[in-house]
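Board notes, transcribed. Complex of a protein with 2-acetamido-2-deoxy-beta-D-glucopyranose.
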Amino acid sequence: MAVDSSLASVLGVLLVFTLLHNPNTVVGQSIPKVALFTFGDSNFDAGNKQNLTTVNVAQGFWPYGKSRDNPNGKFSDGFIAPDFVAKFMEIPIPIPPVLRPDVNISRGASFAVADATLLGAPVESLTLNQQIRKFNQLKEANWNDDFIKGSVFMIYVGANDYLNFTKNNPDADASAQQAFVTSVTNKLRSDITLLYNSGATKFMIQTLAPLGCLPIVRQDYRTGEENCYEPLNNLAKLHNEKIGPMLNELAATASGFQFTVFDFYNVILRRIQSKTISLSYRFLKTNVSCCGVGTHDAYGCGLPNVHSKLCEYQRSYLFFDGRHNTEKAQEMFGHLLFGADPNVIQPMNVRELVMYPVGEPMREVWLPTTSSTFQAKHASSPFGRGFQYY
Ligand SMILES: *[C@@H]1O[C@H](CO)[C@@H](O)[C@H](O)[C@H]1NC(C)=O
Ligand SMILES: *[C@@H]1O[C@H](CO)[C@@H](O)[C@H](O)[C@H]1NC(C)=O
Ligand SMILES: *[C@@H]1O[C@H](CO)[C@@H](O)[C@H](O)[C@H]1NC(C)=O
Ligand SMILES: CC(=O)N[C@H]1CO[C@H](CO)[C@@H](O)[C@@H]1O
């Protein structure tokens, strides 16, 4: 009896020990009170562009924010993906645009600005590098080092570099494309390193969407009914291929560097391509915008001099305007970022990234996936249907 009970308590201690030391376990653990910082372009802009320009921006006007009765400078009919991630992180106040006066940035901020690029000098915007410098200016007065180390840094940038490149170099050959991708991704690498040297250790990097399938791109390049503009998809693919290996290398060399990669490219592409499955994603329209004018209703949403169309039911559209997603889609992205499996975000999801002990080396690396490995994995997936189609 005495032996039994001491054995039981030893097992109990072992169990507790195991739970505490498995960072992927949430049993009995609460989400640390940390911050969420976002960097990049319009997809993560919480209203900074509005503050950076003297002209009235479309996203400050109806029908932007329509589903929330509040056009607030976000490029959506309501919330954007980081808003949902912040909510899942139990952050009690909305993530504010850092450039707006008098905002409370104690639990994070959006440094992202529409039109942001990695290279060049974007007009009335900030490059990623300038956004990080802004973070550094504010750091000392607002957040201590441990708090920054535990916080999540989400980055989505590069689309504007490739859209600009393609516009200016419509006939670029493969080697010119590859050279440009190399300079863009090298800049991304040096900017991430700058952010790491500023104290950040937990990074979520989102791959670029299939840029050639954005409604505004299909419309501008007149791709016809079903097609995407492949040169831009190829640039996005070349860019995306470099992200994972680059971050693996940083994690192997920079102490305490932790990351994950959200496969946004395939998240969007699956919703666009799967004609029948698209019903299970609940989007009926994936090739045209909800708001705008033109062959794909993709131009001019919110502009005062444009009589743009507005769809009746935003939630059945993947895209709200020519290049930004509806709130319904953003909510899905938020769920995928926070809780999806490695087919969508790897080596871990944002919940696991938040819970992962600060300073500890990562146990898993990012692995290349192809559409064939994706399908093969799923053919033998032990999970139910809900897990099979992200
Ligand atoms: C900012 O928000 C935090 C978190 O909700 C709160 O504790 C703090 O009092 C706020 N600061 C100001 C100045 O309102
Ligand atoms: C766009 O491309 C042009 C021509 O290559 C370049 O001069 C300019 O800096 C680019 N703009 C941005 C914001 O990258
Ligand atoms: C969008 O896709 C649908 C269904 O495949 C097709 O019927 C329609 O013509 C497409 N619209 C445009 C503008 O490409
Ligand atoms: C147009 C606008 O709102 N500008 C503001 C942007 O933010 C700076 C600094 O926070 C303010 O000084 C501007 O008035």
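Residues 174-197 form the longest helix (24 residues). The chain has one domain: 31-266+325-372.
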